Amino acid sequence: MQEDVSKLRNEFISRALSTENKEELEALRIEFLGKNGRFTALLKQLKDIDPSERKHVGELLNETKKVLEDTLSGQQRENEQRGERGFDETIPGIKPPIGHIHLISKAIDEISAVFENIGFVRRRYPEVEWDWFAFESLNFTKLHPARDNWETFFVDTPADPKLGPMLLTPHTSSGQAREMLEKVTLPIRMINISKCYRRQSDASHLTMLHQFEGLVIDTNINFVHLKGTIDYFMNSFFGPNRKSRLRPYNFPFTEPSFELDISCDICGGKGCKLCKQGWLELGGAGMVHPNVLKAGNIDAKKYRGFAFGWGVERAYMMKSGLRVPDIRMLNSTDLRFLTQF
Ligand code: DAH
To answer: How many angstroms separate the first and last alpha carbons of the chain?
Structure first.
C-alpha cells in the first residue's frame, strides 16, 4: 500500500508538471482525485486495512493528498503565466536593437563643432524660401539658368510682389541675406547647415541634399582669412594628410570665386578612376560680392566678407572613404545599409 501511494504520487507530480493548460490539469485531477479516481480508490481501501496500520497509512494518504492538491494549484498558476498569458519570466528577454545617430546627422554635428571652435554660430534658415533670398539678393541675373524651372523646385503659390515666387531653396546661400538682415551687430560668423533641393537624382546627385554655408563679414576681411579658414577646416575635419586647392570659378555672389578641391584619399593625389587627376571637388567659395552686402543692408565700403558653401554628404564621403555605388542609399531606410555605420 505504501509503495502504491508513493508511485502514484510521483506519477501525478511528473504528469502535472508537464501539463500546459487548465484542461490537461483538470483531466489529471479527475483521473487521480475524482470520484472514481485512482487516488480516491486508495482512500477507499483504507477501511480494509489492518487497524494496527490504519492510523499510519491514513496519515500518509492525507499528506499525499495535500501534496497532490498543492501540485495542482501550483501548476495551475504556472500554466496561467506561461501558456495562457504567453508569459514566462524565465525565458531570457529580447534585447531591443540599439539605434545610432544617422551618418548625415553625425557629419552635421562634427562640422558644426569644427566651426564653433573658431567662433562661428550655427544657424538655420528656411528651406521653403522666396526667390529674392535664393537668387535676387545673391546677384543672380534674371535669366540665370539656376532660376529655371528645370533646376529649381518652385512652389505653386502666388508670388510675393517684392520677394518673387516661392521655392524650395537650392542652396544654403539663401541664408546669407537673411543673416545680414537679421543680424543686429557685426561681425558675422555664421555656419548655416540645412537641406537643399534640386531637380536632380542619379547615382551621384540627391534631390534633397545638405549643405553647410559659411559667411564671415567684418572690417578688413581679405582672401587670407578665407584660405586660413579653409585650411583649418580641412585639417580638423579631414586630418593633416589631405591637401586642398582653390580653382578660379564663377559664382554671381562672390568676386573672386573659387571651387575648392580636396586631394583624393584613394590614390593619395596621384590620380585614379574615382577622382579628377588626384582631386575631388568639394564646393564653392569666394569673397562676398558688394551687391550681396548691399542687399543685406551692409555698408560695402566699410565691410567685406568671405563665404563658402559645401555639401555635407560629399564632405562626409570624402572623409570616411565611404564609397557607395549610389549616393541615394544615404537616404534609404534600409537597416542592412544603415547599421553598418
Ligand atoms: N551656393 C553654391 C552652390 O550651391 C555654393 C557656393 C559657392 C556657396 C560659393 C558660397 C560661395 O557661399 O561663396 O553651388
So the answer is: 72
Minimum CA distance residue for ligand 1 atom 7: 284
DSSP state of 271: -
Segment 242-295, tens digit of pLDDT: 889 999 999 999 999 999 999 887 787 888 877 778 898 899 999 999 999 999
| Phi, psi for residue 18 in degrees, rounded to 5 | -95, 5
Tell me how far CA of residue 245 lies from CA of 82, 124, 321, in angstroms. Answer: 68, 28, 19
Which grid coordinates belong to 101?
Answer: 545617430
Q: How far apart are CA 216 and CA 232, in angstroms?
A: 15
Q: Please state the atom number of ligand 1 nearest to the C-alpha of residue 211.
A: 4
CA distances to 25, 150, 224, 315, 337 from 331, in Å: 56, 23, 37, 16, 10
Least confident stretch, 88-92, 93-97, 181-185, 221-225: 88-92
Angstrom distances, CA of residue 105 to CA of 111, 157, 182: 10, 31, 26
CA of 136 to the centre of ligand 1 (A): 14
Among the ranges given (19-28, 88-97, 205-214), the one the predictor scored with the smallest mean pLDDT: 88-97
Residues 6+ apart with CB under 8 A from 65: 33, 39, 43
Question: Separation of 244 CA from ligand 1 center, angstroms?
Answer: 17
285 versus 320: the higher-pLDDT residue is 285
Q: Report the separation in Å between the CA atom of 257 and the middle of ligand 1, taken as the mean of its atom positions.
A: 9
pTM value surpassing 0.70: yes
CATH superfamily label, 103-338: Bira Bifunctional Protein; Domain 2 (3.30.930.10)
